[in-house]
Design brief:
It is a single chain. With 278 residues, this protein is of the alpha/beta class. 42% of the residues lie in helices and 24% in strands. The protein folds into two domains: 148 residues, Rossmann fold (3-Layer(aba) Sandwich); 111 residues, HUPs (Rossmann fold, 3-Layer(aba) Sandwich). It has a ten-stranded mixed beta sheet with strand order 5-2-1-6-7-12-11-8-9-10, sandwiched between helices. Strands 3-4 form a two-stranded antiparallel ribbon. Helix 4 packs parallel to helix 5 and helix 8 packs across helix 9. The protein starts with 9 loop residues before the first strand and ends with a strand.
Length: 278
């Protein structure tokens, strides 16, 4: 067994009713159960939407009919209350299933700013890769802001990939990679599978890294798969990650020998769930 060095006591999850948000909630609940942590949900009433609904020329386009309808403030407020009630119900259901301590609150303001403020009260912020309006593979604006401005550990989730899939991590011998490896090894104990991409300047160093990791987990029951990363560019790394199959990718972006642009590209474009250790 590996030692739990993943000290998380409060998990904050951003809720907006989108499929990505629900995936983040379920993953956050699973983590909270594993780590015996508290689960805290926050729904943000977007002040910009409320202001937009007060403008006399504001209209919304209905997706199915392509017809337009004037935005009304009262209607927008009702919709947000309904979304918040559904978010609370989802949180209560998942917390009850795992016997978790939880709280829920509604905030009003700019979404990114409110989530950053909420994250200060937690050890980990969980949110979807994209929000309710997101239809693309790239990182949504709220998630991008959280990654760039929050000092907290961040879980970015997408639908259809659960935490019980094999855990993935990248090891380059740096202190940041060591921290990510500790967390990866701990979380991988649940399913027994850990996949590691080794970045080293030559094959001798790669072999040394692999030997060190193997000794570190010698007393565990983990089945560890290794691949050597021959180039740290984002395209090569993304290709190997896709070969490894879908799973939770654990990264550190504050103390790594990987080029910052590589980490940025992975966060922005790799449509995988990512746990960003800080």
């Amino acid at each position: 067994m590996t030692t739990n060095k993943f000290h998380i006591r409060r998990i904050m999850v951003a809720l907006d009713g989108s499929p990505h948000s629900l995936a983040a909630l379920e993953a956050a609940a699973d983590l909270a159960a594993l780590l015996q942590a508290e689960l805290h949900g926050v729904f943000v009433e977007d002040i910009n939407l409320l202001r937009l609904a007060q403008l006399p020329f504001a209209h919304e386009v209905r997706a199915h009919t392509a017809t337009t309808e004037k935005l009304e403030l009262a209607h927008m407020q009702r919709q947000l209350r309904l979304q918040a009630a559904q978010a609370q119900a989802d949180l209560e259901r998942m917390a009850a299933k795992r016997a978790l301590a939880f709280t829920f609150r509604v905030a009003q303001g700019a979404v990114s700013a409110e989530l950053l403020a909420a994250a200060l009260e937690a050890d980990l912020l969980a949110l979807g890769r994209v929000g309710r309006q997101g239809q693309r593979r790239q990182l949504g604006s709220t998630a991008r802001t959280a990654v760039s401005k929050s000092a907290r550990t961040i879980l970015l989730m997408r639908p259809d990939v659960a935490l019980h899939r094999p855990i993935l991590t990248i090891y380059d011998g740096s202190p940041g990679a060591e921290r990510a490896l500790d967390v990866a090894g701990y979380l991988a104990e649940e399913n027994g599978r850990l996949r590691i991409l080794i970045w080293a300047t030559d094959k001798e160093q790669a072999a040394s890294y692999q030997e060190t990791i193997t000794r570190q987990f010698a007393d565990s029951n983990l089945a560890i798969e290794y691949r050597r990363l021959r180039s740290p560019d984002a395209a090569n790394l993304a290709y190997l990650l896709r070969l490894a199959g879908p799973g939770l990718l654990i990264l550190n972006d504050t103390d790594s020998t990987l080029p910052p642009e590589t980490v940025h590209t992975l966060l922005e474009e790799l449509d995988y769930p990512i746990l960003l250790i800080r």
